[in-house]
Design brief:
alpha+beta; GH92 mannosidase fold; five-stranded mixed β-sheet; three-stranded antiparallel β-sheet; 3 helices; 8 strands; 33% strand
Length: 127
């Protein structure tokens, strides 16, 4: 929600903290109630660098990617690749974003843009 208030750095810090401290690979690795898969889905999306604020909406807000690279099959033989450059534990802030090689200045990406396939690049930095 910080992103909507013009403070994406607070979103990034909180998401990175949650991803690295509240989830782990063990029987008790999920915090709270799994809620029919919602917590796991949030983790996967957030680890990719974005998440849905409202489940029925087609907009994904940027957070702080945990993965350096991920390739998603989006149908019809297309892929959507996410790359986080200079992604280290201390570099949890997104410095800049490129979509298909072009500068991207929104704090979100739409579902249709993901499903079109392409390349989303995050340049990461420390606070």
């Amino acid at each position: 929600m910080y992103a909507f208030a013009g403070q994406p750095e607070k979103t990034a810090a909180r998401i990175r903290q949650i991803l690295t401290t509240m989830y782990h690979n063990a029987p008790d690795g999920l915090c709270g109630n799994e809620d029919a898969g919602q917590m796991s889905a949030w983790y996967i999306l957030s680890a990719l660098g974005f998440y849905q604020v409202e489940p029925a909406g087609g907009r994904y807000v940027f957070g702080s990617p945990l993965m350096d690279k991920a390739v998603l099959g989006v149908g019809d033989g297309k892929t959507f690749t996410i790359v986080a450059h200079d992604n280290r534990p201390e570099n949890h802030l997104i410095k800049s974003i490129r979509l298909n090689g072009r500068p991207y200045d929104k704090f979100y990406i739409d579902y249709k843009d993901i499903m079109a396939g392409g390349l989303l690049e995050f340049e990461m930095e420390a606070p």
